């Protein structure tokens, strides 16, 4: 009996080991990105993962925003993805099995509340009674929340209009929105074409942190995570030294005008990918607490419970 149990235990251990090393063994690595995911796009273009993960096929999938990336991650369609600060809060509050694996430096200047160029809205307080568009559960959602607070208003003082970035821009341009919370490169595109005026950037409102999220299975694969973070940091350094080439590449890949990608990169904060430190977790907890206090998520969440420990 003891021998049989030992054999069964051995089989279980072998099976577990096979699961944990699935990516190293050559299973597809599925990565979700969006138009703001500069480093991921450079990693893909320059094939920075190939030498670090020989034999691993990488599948790249573009999404319009972070909430869609985390939904795909939660249902097992992705292994790794890039989002702003708010999507992980909504995902965690909904009981999704997602994990904070790393983050980039804050980018508060890379998001803004925009109004039409001829708008009478001049201050954040002027948003009272206005239709304000944003992608629900995105970093722009928190940006709008903070803008309302800084303007001395209540959330009930505005009419939230939740739209994807492309739908929001169309609504903004036809006059169906009085203001629009958005991030780069959509922000840069609207700003450059002259139809939008910046009411406020994210500076003084939000850190606008960018996170890398992983599936539970990937959190157990230290080799693949290290390869991802090393590649992302290498990509970031390359972008910093090759901004013009990067702008041209992004314009081709995204279909955006070159002037837009140049503006996007000009205000983008560079820096390597790091694991979350206590201060980062505390900053993200403030985001989560704000949504909970307003009743915009079903219950409070403890961010630290979903953070991959170094």
TrEMBL record:
GO cellular component: membrane; periplasmic space
Transmembrane segments: none
Pfam families on file: NMT1 (PF09084)
Cellular compartment(s): Periplasm
Solute-binding protein family 3/N-terminal domain sequence ranges: 28-252
An annotated Gene Ontology molecular function: ATPase-coupled transmembrane transporter activity
SMART domains: PBPb
Signal peptide span: 1-24
UniProt-listed Gene3D superfamilies: Periplasmic binding protein-like II
Domain of life according to the entry: Bacteria
Keywords: Signal, Transport
UniProt record similarity statement: Belongs to the bacterial solute-binding protein SsuA/TauA family.
Function: Part of a binding-protein-dependent transport system for aliphatic sulfonates. Putative binding protein.
Protein name as it appears in the record: Putative aliphatic sulfonates-binding protein
Organism (species): Scleromatobacter humisilvae
